[in-house]
Recover the amino acids of this structure.
């Protein structure tokens, strides 16, 4: 099962800047268990966003958003409402966000960060992959994941190695993920997102507990005047 | 806090030439140092030292840069993000400053699978943009985690851009990001078509940042064709390939390559702030290029 947590609400608002009319897509699978998806969480988020001045064009909750066929079939039913929106906000893991981005030609933003696959990359494994990086960037990359797609997992745009055909310098038989991201953002008229400076990824989200990493030099570097440093010794 | 000669020169609006050396695999660095001293000292304002270029393990850039200083040359430290995490990159940047190195060129780096250690880990903790931002932070007395520095370095921070990339828009967006992150000068990927270069320079004029036109010296017909087929964003026009075909001896000796480069720079010098000469070991033809392009 996938483990995800909601992004800070301020980050969601930053992502939705300029998108006044928002369509919500929720997942009733793992995300519902993690409280990052499902009808209740989606309704709660819709409320919050309305208070922030957003118009909710509609909401669809889908059982297992990682199932691309199911997601496509369900979303097409509500295509008129979706077309009225400026953007889609997806309450699911990174795979769900990628699936939605691959079936609609609109800006798609994640509402959650995916922390762990817990053994299974969704229940309907497809070509979309989630790197469980804990800080979902899909909102800036047109719903295409550079962590799993780019050979170098770059976050600030393509490297100098993109071939003239738009392929990856490492595997010439597949497209450069950043070239795809550029094309996608161009299609949805959101190239401005590409200009954001992306902070280096915070790898500490992936580390085991600090207690397992303590060394002599770690101890020397601690400020012993801080009570926190003596915690557990009493 | 003295400025590097390269910074002084480009900021004064003078045309600056930079050379490039690639240290060997092993410790026999005397030959490339001697050649740099002999051919580049009087012709180039500064000389890049490559950082395990093409992902091939070699003698290091940091030591190579210091050795150039010892011989009276000004180095440009190339730093790729493939082999070191953000701790090591920052530490090496501080070390570089301590060794008297001021010019730093921030590059993402080729993927490790393209070199001779495909089994190695690729780090890419930072990328070219975030490395530039990190160097800027160090200059403000902070490390990447916000910690205070005891003694603050200053650098002249460079980056790269590919003028002939198609589409060009992603290059321009990333170039702008690099400038915002702190890039003060650019060295370009190899460019041979003056019209294409002119178009590119018109597009980046708005950024008001010095650009040094990159020149990989053409050594043979085979090399030109190989680059066309394999190097992203590099196109050697057929006319130049015919030029290389004409006189085999002149091509072999470097005369043709030097003449092609000099012809390009003669026209390009009115469009940009300098040239970056990547001779791939043929330092001896640099004086001919400088003379041919009437740069001195």
């Amino acid at each position: 099962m996938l483990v995800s947590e909601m992004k800070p609400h301020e980050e969601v608002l930053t992502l939705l800047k300029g998108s006044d009319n928002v369509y919500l897509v929720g997942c009733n699978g793992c995300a519902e268990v993690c409280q990052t998806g499902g009808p209740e969480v989606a309704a709660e988020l819709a409320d919050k966003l309305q208070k922030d001045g957003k118009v909710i064009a509609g909401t669809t909750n889908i059982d297992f958003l990682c199932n691309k066929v199911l997601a496509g079939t369900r979303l097409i039913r509500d295509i008129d409402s979706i077309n009225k929106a400026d953007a889609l906000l997806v309450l699911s893991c990174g795979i769900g966000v990628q699936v939605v981005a691959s079936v609609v030609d609109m800006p798609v933003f994640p509402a959650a960060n995916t922390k762990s696959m817990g053994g299974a990359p969704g229940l309907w494994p497809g070509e979309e992959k989630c790197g469980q990086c804990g800080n979902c960037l899909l909102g800036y990359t047109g719903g295409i994941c550079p962590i799993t797609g780019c050979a170098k997992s770059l976050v600030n745009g393509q490297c100098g190695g993109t071939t003239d055909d738009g392929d990856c310098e490492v595997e010439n038989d597949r497209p450069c993920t950043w070239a795809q991201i550029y094309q996608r953002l161009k299609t949805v008229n959101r190239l401005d997102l590409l200009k954001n400076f992306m902070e280096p990824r915070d790898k500490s989200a992936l580390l085991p507990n600090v207690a397992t990493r303590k060394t002599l030099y770690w101890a020397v570097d601690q400020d012993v005047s801080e009570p926190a440093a003596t915690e557990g010794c009493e | 806090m003295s400025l590097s000669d390269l910074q002084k020169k480009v900021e004064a609006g003078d045309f600056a030439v930079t050379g490039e050396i690639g240290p060997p695999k092993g410790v026999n660095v005397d030959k490339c140092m001697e050649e740099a001293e002999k051919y580049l000292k009087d012709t180039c304002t500064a000389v890049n030292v490559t950082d395990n270029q093409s992902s091939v393990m070699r003698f290091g850039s940091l030591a190579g840069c210091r050795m150039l200083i010892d011989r009276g040359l000004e180095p440009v430290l190339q730093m790729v993000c493939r082999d070191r995490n953000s701790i090591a990159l920052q530490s090496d940047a501080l070390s570089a400053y301590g060794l008297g190195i001021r010019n730093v060129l921030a590059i993402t780096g080729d993927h490790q699978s393209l070199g001779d250690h495909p089994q190695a880990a690729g780090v890419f903790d930072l990328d070219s943009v975030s490395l530039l931002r990190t160097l800027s932070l160090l200059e403000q007395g902070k490390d990447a985690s916000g910690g205070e520095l005891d003694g603050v370095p200053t650098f002249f921070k460079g980056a790269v851009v590919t003028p002939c990339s198609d589409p060009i828009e992603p290059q321009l967006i990333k170039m702008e990001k690099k400038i915002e992150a702190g890039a003060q000068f650019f060295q370009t990927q190899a460019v041979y078509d003056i019209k294409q270069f002119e178009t590119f320079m018109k597009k980046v004029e708005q950024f008001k940042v010095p650009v040094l036109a990159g020149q990989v010296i053409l050594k043979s017909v085979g090399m030109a064709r190989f680059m066309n087929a394999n190097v992203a964003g590099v196109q050697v026009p057929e006319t130049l390939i015919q030029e290389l075909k004409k006189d085999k001896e002149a091509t072999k000796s470097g005369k043709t390559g030097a003449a092609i480069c000099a012809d390009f720079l003669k026209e390009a010098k009115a469009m940009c702030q300098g040239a970056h000469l990547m001779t791939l070991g043929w330092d001896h033809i640099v004086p001919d290029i400088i003379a041919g392009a009437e740069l001195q």
About this structure: Chain A touches chain B at residues 151-164, 169-170, 178-179, 182, 191, 194-195, 197-201, 203 (CB under 8 Å). Chain A is about 30% helix and 15% strand. The longest strand of chain A covers residues 55-62. Residues 3-145 of chain A form a domain with the Rossmann fold fold (CATH 3.40.50.1860).
